[in-house]
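Archive entry: two folds, one per protein. Generate the first.
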Amino acid sequence: MQKQELVRKQNEFKVTLTGLEEDLLSQLSAADPATILDNIPLIEGLEKTKATSKEINIQVEQAQKTEVEINTSRELYRPVAAEGSMLFFLIIQLCFIEHMYQYSLDSFVSFLYKAIDRTESCEDLSERTTKLITMIRMTIFRWVNRGLFEKHKLIFCAMLTFKLFQKGVLGEEYNSSYYNYLMRAPFAVGMENPLSDWLPIKNWGLVLKLTELEGFDNFATNMEKDAPNRFKEWFNEMAPEDVKLPLDWKRLDSVPFQKMLVLRALRPDRSCSALGDWIRQSLPNGRDYMDCDGSSSIQMILINSFEDSTSTTPIFFILSPGADPVKEVEAMGIS
């Protein structure tokens, strides 16, 4: 809007300046050359036109300078717009998980404005942009997360983290082959399992597919020939995601996403736990997202939800057996 207003004013200045020039030419052409120096009204008109023209030129220069500043600010704020766009298109995909997860653009924009209002002001635009992105991300996430079933909350958090991972926001480098393996878990079939005494055939098939990825070439050989007993011990751990892998594979502790690929192959039952740990470590303020409202009382959640609501946006409760928030709602109404 500010950009449009600036363009409008620039056009007005140009039209005014053009009109003055045409009026000046008209007066000069109509004046008598013999008495032009004695024509006081004409001379005064010329002086006035000259002063007005100078003033308009100054305003045009100021408008051009302002336009540059607006363009610079707009580029600095572009990541904020990109973040908002990413979040909206992310949450509208939740309907594929559960059809009741529907989010309108109007409701999204209202929470976007809430986040902007809550963001701390600062003079440095770069710092302001960073704070806006952080606040918008958390505000939208908390709003959506509170309306999800418990079993879907990790999925939503993972969707957000993977999207930021693909954008290069996280510390680890994104590799599409690793990501596809984690999501699809392809496995080889019809292959003999040399570790059948403790490793299921499907897991061995997953390991063989894992060796096709860059950096995992020797993984199957290390399991089968170099340290089968040590891998068996790791496989039998209650929480293998917290235990270093045998041999040189202990280095994967420094790249936890790659370690998740090994867990996906050998201990898929621990993948969700490992995914949660990875989000806490890798996502900026990851614990706030993974443990969102986890330590808050229902009273505190109700108060925060009430602050987000308006007279035309009511709060809906989707209750499971045994849940009864009536007392908390009544207490909040009394207070």
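Generate the second and append.
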Amino acid sequence: MKIQWIRVLVGGFLIEVVLAIVLVGGFAAAGVSLDTISTAAAVVIGIGCFVAAFVVVLWFGRRIDSHLVLHGFLMGLVATLLYVALVTGSGQMPTALAAYGPATFVIVNAARLVGAVLGGVAGERRRATLA
């Protein structure tokens, strides 16, 4: 089994870039403050995390020959670790946990992982139907 680590790292980074641009930009354009996360905002963020990870893995996985689901999981894991490292490194973890709530924080980050894995599953299925 050969894991394509460069694709995993770039894919994970790309997931976070897409999320930052779309979600932060979208909330800023709408005039929504992210100091406290409402239930509706948490749902939008969770769906955004899922969709961004799904699409990036589906797109980036086209050139991965095997184990696309594993690669998807690893991309989602890299993206999640990047986010947690950025939040922790900037000293904003207590603020993020207070804004989301611990359970919502975990659920939103789990949505990114689930989206990445299901992106890998969809890529494998697409590959199987084309073969």
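Annotation attached to the second fold: Residues 11-18+36-130 form one domain. The first helix runs from residue 5 to 30.
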